[in-house]
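Quick entry between incubations.
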Amino acid sequence: MNKLLSDFTVGESGKIIKVGGEGRIRRRLFDMGVTPGAELTMRKKAPLGDPIEITLRGYELTLRKDEAACVEVELK
Amino acid sequence: MRTFALAGNPNCGKTTLFNALTGSSAHVGNWPGVTVDKREGVYKGAGENVAIVDLPGIYSLSPYTPEEVISRNYILDEKPDGIINIVDATNLERNLYLTTQILECDVPVIIALNMMDEVKKSGDKIDVKAIEKTLGVPVVEISALRKTGIKELMQRAVSMPKQRKGETVLKDALHKQLETACAYYEAEGVASPLFHAVKLLENDEIEVKRKGADKVLKSAAADVDMEAVIADERYKYISGSLAGAKVKAQKDVLTKSDKIDKVLTHRVWAIPIFIVILFFIFHLTFSENLFYLNGFTEGQAWMPSLVELGLATEEDGPNNFGVEILAIFYDGAVFSPGVILTNFLNLFLDHISDGVVTLMGNGGAAEWATGLVGDGILGGIFAVLGFLPQILVLFLFFSILEDTGYMARIAFVLDRIFRRFGLSGRAFMPMIMGFGCSVPAAINTRTLADEKERTATIRVIPFFSCGAKLPILTAVAGGIVMAFGVGNADVITFCMYLLGICTAVVCVLLMRNTTLKGETPPFIMELPTYHAPSFKNLMLHLWDKTKHFVKKAFTIIFASTIIIWLFSHLSWDWHYLPDEEMQNSIIASVGMLLQPVFTPLGFGSQLGQFGWVFAVAAITGLIAKENVIATFTTLSICIMAYAGEGTEEGVEELAGIIQLITADAGISQREFVAALIAFIAFNMTTIPCFAACATAKAELAKGKFKWTLLFWLAVSYIVSAMVYTIGAYIWPLAIWFVVIALVVTFIVLRNIGKFDIMKIFKRRKSK
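Done. Structure below.
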């Protein structure tokens, strides 16, 4: 099942299918290792619900839901 | 001398390695992006001297943040003799992503595999030889923190061949496209053609602008999403080649870092914990009633003061030297570490000052010379130096938060709030650094990719009261408490910090809705692993700060105290005036001339014949904020001599001058307290010191600086006018309320007029 990263609940993990968005944001996501094929796990939400923290390529990355909405993930 | 550049991801230990190599005390912190400008040093251990350049930490060589541009331009244009690419072994995959890009440049590269000790500790294994073979460049295991492997690293770096041709990991996947693009750059005669070719295929902002490049791009990469393909290929290569090189141990489900994180970023407790931590930091630095051992209010106080114990008298102070030492730690209440250190240094400085003055008196020095040295120079400088301990303690706490990695979590926790004001959680770091010093804070804004966000952040940084403004806060607050016996210096200080923060928030909101409108910048950030702060690093931080502060005390402040003393003891016809005739001095007449300007702020004409001191202090503060209190001390010693009050010392000078003015100008206590708080507010929010202005000018886009100066002036004037009028009379609150309502309505109406009203309505609905 495919799902946007922004809709993930804590603890879910999956494999990135597609990275949308444009220009800067997309480039930044790529540079931080958010590329198709990478596996990630949603770790937690910030106390105010946004941003979120994910584990990816062995490190912790935080991004906002707006940016996470650019990432399509195949649920594991 | 050959030059090697250090390049690597943010937070991979680059600056620690730089320090280990050059023995310098460059700033190090556990926050992605602390090094924001390149720094240079010399390594002397490799037979020949080698220049080392520390580049800012970057994730990629794409030109989207100022740091990336600095690093990229350095590697391509300055042509170093080699690049030492530091790779965090605990996070190989993402770190090697940058490596694959660096390898595309025509420059010798050596890889320093850092934090290998951590990897071994966790039980993982990395086959260094295998990585070396795959990448085709030397790889050396090091631990920058423990300084192991550094000698070997530098020896191998020095003995690398002088030339190296760029290599790419994309040659299999994108062979044809690269050939086309490379041919174009080779024909153009560009150095490192391979690097440029790959960047062009990535649709790189800079490369696409080149003449004829778009045609090449079109023919090479027709309709394919090359950006995604290239990023993907790089990572595929890395995971493919590492498959055999890295062996992961069976991991516990939760590492220590995870456990700490669970508490510190807890859904409910994260924000309360943060507030408690901030409170404790301020309490331990400033409180004169540690942990409220002596009760929360005056009524609960049970500890006897030294006078009550019969160990000291009101007139002569402590009975003997032993009591003097005791008074450092305790006088009616136990002091906090910050206060204890301050008392200790002040005791020392007082004895020096007294000694010098006595010596000069005995030696038969002229009255003016003793005055200049005792009151002018020593008085001013010591008043400022006396605050150094508290600044250092505060700075120490912030350094610990930064080093442990907690600062990055605060950005994570607070981002949601910052976004409301059109900033990202990243803007929090420069702002909190502003509590230490505006200069590094303004430089640190380079981690913000968005130009408008940067401008807004730089402009509000001075409102986060810096270490140099702290003396103004504590001295004036202390003066109020001592002179009127009202309030609590702790609470006043804390509230002033809050006022600064509120001012910053309002200003950011205002700017982001008027002159600096724009989309909220993205927030995509690494959260570093927690680790215990290194004692050595902390001491380096503090030493740096001390050096800076002492240097400032003995240069700028030294010069200005002398100038202030001279101008306050010279009349317009260049005659020496004794303390008693200071009213006729140059500085007094300038101050009196300017006094009416400050009347709406409470510290103008209504303060009577001595009120000009405040005007002069505010103006000297433009040179360095430490000057404000130095000026007070220098001037008040003289004024009180004139008024026949006898000289007092320490924070008491302010209390003395406050009492004097109250009696002289006949204003009510409430008006005066409001005026004094307005005075603090003015100094906190007005144009910062010379150094901060120069940095802001350098960091801001062209043409923005003069508006920024005007902005600071306007904000400080308005804020302190509000504080004074509301504090003194309450009823102006209504007027301010109406003015604010009008301004808000105007801005909202204007913004709505510019955008489609339906669009805003819809946006709100969709939220």
